[in-house]
Amino acid sequence: MGLLAPFRDNHPERRAGVEEKATVVEQPTRYSFFTTRLEAPLYAGSTHELASTYTPFETLLDTGEHSGLWWLDVASPAEGDIESLSRAFDIHPLTTEDIKIRESREKIELFGPYYFLSLRPPQVQMDTASGVRTSSLNVYALVFRGGVITFTFGDCPHPAHVRSRIKEHRSHLALTSDWICYALIDDIVDGFAPFIDRIESGVETMEDSVSITRPDDIGMALQNIYHCRKEVTRIRQLLYDKTDVIRSFARHCDSFGAASTQVALYLSDIQDHVLTMMANLANAEQMLSRSQSKYLSQLSFDSTRMRNSIVAALSRLTVVASCIVPMQFITGLMGMNVTVPGENANGLNWWLGILGLILGLIAVFLVIAKKTRFL
């Protein structure tokens, strides 16, 4: 096991910290069996059905021997299916345990006659107590010299994509179990491309919309940036984990024959692809950080401008009130129970004079306030 990394921690207490897995929508177990001895894959609901359809498969289960390269894909396996295949192919208990508990750590480990690959694809729909959410479930592959066994959960399209690729290039392809493992890794890595394209498109839209976003919409824009940055961080972590797996797989292929060495050349292309994706995500993260700073600056500017407008309005109201309050003193004097000027005069001359005085003083005060820039 010194050939491959990362190494497995076999202590049972390590599993105490594994986060609780969401409940996957249960689907019927589906078996797909590919072999170079047949033109097309076989599909069945159980190993017994496959054995009755294709007799050499029963020999493969009994002895582990087959005259050609084979690939058994098990979709949505139950624990009983995992146990029966573990007994048939002498799979290590640690590998069986990882598949049964759906270990989320991505790794590649060597176990005598086979090596075990655990890789996480982009996304899969899962049912939780709070409803349906998007998460990831690993794809597990056991790669023997003469064949491959894969276990997938949920609606995983990657094995079907690899079978289609084999069918398309079968005439000029040096098909080995290592190549099937490489093709599975390559298809999983390619599955991240649509998500990264969507992120890059969204980031460019956010950055272009900074100058035209209304103040009322800035909160929603900041919330979108938060979710986008969270998605970028998640995908970057998934891609970063795959670089260790790819390097370990490349070292394994380099230590074997020419066919595996050819697969190692393909792996360098996958690693370059992963590094390019991570660089694109890093650039998207920088753009998101810049957009977030711009939105926050605009939000601060709008808040300051609104606060200044409120202060100016309150200042005007204070000045107007200050001009009117002294007039209340005059009206108060005229309303006292004493003799006031013009009380016994006929007509409205005194009343109009007092009213004119009040309005004139208000006008004078307002003009003074306007000249002194209080209004």
From TrEMBL:
Annotated membrane topology: Multi-pass membrane protein
Keyword Secreted on entry: no
An individual GO BP term: intracellular magnesium ion homeostasis
Pfam families per the UniProt record, alphabetical: CorA
Chain ranges passing through the membrane: 310-330, 350-369
Cellular component, GO, one term: plasma membrane
Gene3D superfamilies, A to Z: CorA soluble domain-like, Magnesium transport protein CorA, transmembrane region
Subcellular location: Membrane
Record's signal peptide: none
Keyword annotations from UniProtKB, A to Z: Membrane, Transmembrane, Transmembrane helix
GO molecular function, one term: magnesium ion transmembrane transporter activity
Source domain of life: Eukaryota
Family: Belongs to the CorA metal ion transporter (MIT) (TC 1.A.35) family.
Descriptive protein name: Mg2+ transporter protein
Organism: Aspergillus candidus
